[in-house]
Amino acid sequence: MHTPGSKVSGYIVLMIVQIIFLVLFWLFVRYEKAVLPAPIAAEDAGSAKEHVSKYPQFQDIQVMIFIGFGFLMTFLRKYGYSATGYTLFMAALVVQWAVLMKGFLHMDGGKISLSLESIIDADIAAAVPLISMGALLGRTTPIQLLCMSIFEVALFAGNEYLALNILSICDCGGSITVHAFGAYFGLAVALMLRPASDQNDAGKHEGANYVSDLFAMIGTTFLWVYWPSFNSVLAEGSGGERAILNTFLSLAAATVTTFVVSALVSHENKLDMVHVQNSTLAGGVAVGTVCNLLLGAHGAVLIGIIAGTVSVLGYRYLTPWLTSNLRIHDTCGVHNLHGMPALISAIASAIVASMVTADDYQSELQDIFPAMVHGNNGTVTKIMGGLGRNASTQAGYQLFGIAVTLLIAIGGGILAGGVMKYTSFRNLEKDEQHQDEQYWEVPAVENKEE
Amino acid sequence: MHTPGSKVSGYIVLMIVQIIFLVLFWLFVRYEKAVLPAPIAAEDAGSAKEHVSKYPQFQDIQVMIFIGFGFLMTFLRKYGYSATGYTLFMAALVVQWAVLMKGFLHMDGGKISLSLESIIDADIAAAVPLISMGALLGRTTPIQLLCMSIFEVALFAGNEYLALNILSICDCGGSITVHAFGAYFGLAVALMLRPASDQNDAGKHEGANYVSDLFAMIGTTFLWVYWPSFNSVLAEGSGGERAILNTFLSLAAATVTTFVVSALVSHENKLDMVHVQNSTLAGGVAVGTVCNLLLGAHGAVLIGIIAGTVSVLGYRYLTPWLTSNLRIHDTCGVHNLHGMPALISAIASAIVASMVTADDYQSELQDIFPAMVHGNNGTVTKIMGGLGRNASTQAGYQLFGIAVTLLIAIGGGILAGGVMKYTSFRNLEKDEQHQDEQYWEVPAVENKEE
Amino acid sequence: MHTPGSKVSGYIVLMIVQIIFLVLFWLFVRYEKAVLPAPIAAEDAGSAKEHVSKYPQFQDIQVMIFIGFGFLMTFLRKYGYSATGYTLFMAALVVQWAVLMKGFLHMDGGKISLSLESIIDADIAAAVPLISMGALLGRTTPIQLLCMSIFEVALFAGNEYLALNILSICDCGGSITVHAFGAYFGLAVALMLRPASDQNDAGKHEGANYVSDLFAMIGTTFLWVYWPSFNSVLAEGSGGERAILNTFLSLAAATVTTFVVSALVSHENKLDMVHVQNSTLAGGVAVGTVCNLLLGAHGAVLIGIIAGTVSVLGYRYLTPWLTSNLRIHDTCGVHNLHGMPALISAIASAIVASMVTADDYQSELQDIFPAMVHGNNGTVTKIMGGLGRNASTQAGYQLFGIAVTLLIAIGGGILAGGVMKYTSFRNLEKDEQHQDEQYWEVPAVENKEE
């Protein structure tokens, strides 16, 4: 993690990382059995087909990660190459790392099984540092970002394992393990990188123009339309369809609410593109943890209304306060899009979990809340809190899960931010922020001729 | 529907509408049985999986509605926030309303069943007011648009029920019930909102620039590639694949034709982006009603050639005439993209229906033309025209279906337009049209620094 | 192919081509049996469903062709209408032609069977002239391009038949038959159209601006995310999932490598958007031919690293050399994105094929390497080299396949380029190049008011 300041050595370190990945893939990763040709006798085309049935959802998530996040962050008028480019760079690095890291936690005979599931998990993991990047957008070098993402994804994989496999919380759409983790990790890094108090004004290049705002809408809209795939891809049984329906309705309600609240609280009652680009998506985050549960349509709509309201009010009042008082410059407002809505989702999950009954969830109780089942095999006995948790205990674990996640994310972010600031990493000067020119060839004469 | 003129009260009304939706969801909407956990004894994973097999097509339609329509309308150079933003706002409101409205028409035990089908239908319904919005683009306030859409979708649901369930016409891709309805409703509203004759010149902000035209191409292209999903999503049996193939071929032929005819009729034989952005899609509309029938590849190609030709000629000659003579300012030319091609589709459906035989359609006759079957159960007896319609009768009903649709759409549009114009809704002044500034925070200094 | 110089007659020729297609569809094309309604007795809904299971991948490929290629080529600042428009025009023409051409090579009872497979193949075929278009971007008229594409696709269909059905090479992702063919055909045309030596400087409109580079990133990113669908769509059995995984990993590794190498070799170590837009995709091409084989994750990553490196170095050093010395102006650098990576893929396929054993490939050997199987039915005896090829022979055939493909592509390109240059086709003057104005209505006053 100790990278010298110059660009060249930073990039060389990243190349070495790529080569280390190559070696680790060679040593540890093998195709899962279903991805290998079937023996001639036992040929069964059906099983292979079954196996890739989540492929369309995977492709939706690919679009969210690469197009969605990438273009959402193009709203800065002089930082579009970086927004789209670093998204591609970071995600390409992180997906490989996530296959390895998550694989190490679930090894089978000393080897990591590679299948469609692996790269679905890897894409989800890529969302984590991309969320954090939103809190830092324009204020780090690419070397800092990439090195941060390697550390963050390792920590994410550990926290996720803790939350899902040890604490046995439900988090179908990843609002706790992905959104809260990514947002608060990023905010903690932003806290460490905060400017001196005499440099706390907005950067001169920080801001949108008409065209950059429209590019950002490409990101917003693709995130919006494919969010049901993100939330439902890991759901099982009928929970998959519930996750789709609940996410869709929550997004719709959050969107209507965002427009209304934006107009009501903004200057001259004019709509604000920042709210439209971001808070419309808060419904997807806020329903994430509970999306496969029996919320009912009204439950999903209610969560959306709350999320849209909280998110817009966050942009309008809380973000300026954080900037002025704590000097946390959350460029994209990830606290309002990912942070607070994820907290809403965690609280909702405790409320819904406290009302769970075996009668309602029937055959799916075991999949969704494995620790609530009186198991009769050895593997479940490792789950903390023992077998046969009742509904209130499960609710308590949901809250414990978010608390632990916040602790690890903020702790990890402070550590990462400290390393980024105080070691030999090059830090951007105030004037170098929010513009591509430092790290990209930018057309110099573009406006002369036209 | 009586909204006071000020922005604030308009937005508050929309928030109240959202809360009414919440209450209606709570009172009436329940997950369909297949979306609930299966009883432990009867667990059947296959059925849940079967249930979401249309999910990829649904996601394609999501892209069409939110990205396709949203970006297609960004061609106006100063109205991009509104185009993408109001699309999101309107669609998010309308999908909820459509789940309710279409649900009320198909209630089961006093409750509305919620499943993937519901939100597929809701997305299709969202296309209707978005088409109408195209005819009005830049000349209404968002409050007017949103209120219009609530009324329009209710009327659409009623007309669709009439056409499909009472008149029993075939309309697989919705050219009659969606495209013709949306286009002529919108044109009727445009007629009511037409400017005084001394203000009939083009608005000073009406027009594209180089960048806005490229943003519009994002919309065009996504509509183009996903149109086969829109047309095929409700088809059954082998009709689904026919719908895909016919739509694809019709679009391809319409596109080639559009380029050629555009060059031949335009000034200096130069291609016109308006034609390329819109008329290339006319093949998808014109094949819609008949897309699942036994057209043959040549039938689909022929329809595409006709649609591309008619659409370009409409833009070149008819739209200017309507503007000058009737003062109908059809901003996006929905008459040429949706209106006339939908009429072509209706006529094609009468021709094809008149040649239908039970020998050709075999086991699928009942699904496609339920009124042509000598039924033996009670439910079909309600269909108008009795059971066992012959081919010519069905052809007549197809024409009757489009006629009734036009009547209801135009009547409804005149009513809606009248309310929008003569009640306390705020109307835009001439100078306020086709620009975002009235309702959006727009970056003021964007060009200074760059 | 002899088109008179004026625009009007060129477009009329294209319309006549469209009408000839209509007639050929009418005469020769019929729905495949599974696309027809099932007889009432033998109704089997399952088979129809099975049949469209590749539909989601088809839709991904649609996005690659129309959005991916179209927007990737918008990087030229004054050629965006042409990039997106001609992509649409060319692809719409070519898909129809490809259904016919590939159909003629696989007729059944004198008729061409139309099914989802047909239009998947047609979309893949459309990639071929679009790749060639990249080598010529901005230096031809649309008439030249379209006529070239008709000839090229016919030649492509012949070469593909030769490579896959006669030589029996493996080429799952089409790197040999699609990418190498399209790239070297286009470069050969570029050689024929090369400027006189006193006009060899860059065109004055050739170059990107900030916004055009961001539009191009839309193309890049969609190509990136959907590339696994392109490579895997024709794979069978477990090879489909291997194709997805290998393509994903190769792309990721190529992307990381591209960023690093770009920074290391560029001026002031700044990242170059040309590399980011193109070389990140080289991993998808380089893994194409071998994507369904048992590469292992490390094999895929290694191929990605090599491809990213070669592609960036090609842009940095080889392309300028080709321009200066051979006067080949490869506008998009297709040699670096498609040409050289395809050669890497062909070489990789020879290496991997030389190590194939029946033990590894089990039941899938026959699908992947039909000529390596000791067949016992008559149809396989036509395969060149006889039955029961051993691994080294198959490796030799892989190299023979790419050699034949290069020969046919370059020969065809020289022929096509010669016809485009020396017959009555209108050629663009130097000053007319790389701008839309000659063939498009372009907003004249766009910057005055804003």
TrEMBL record, chains A, B, C:
It is found in: Membrane. GO terms for biological process: ammonium homeostasis. Coiled coil: none annotated. GO terms for cellular component: plasma membrane. Its main location: membrane. The chain crosses the membrane at residues 12-29, 86-107, 145-164, 176-196, 208-227, 247-266, 301-318, 339-358, 397-420. PANTHER family: AMMONIUM TRANSPORTER, RH50, ISOFORM D. This is Ammonium transporter Rh type B isoform X2. The gene is LOC117567270.
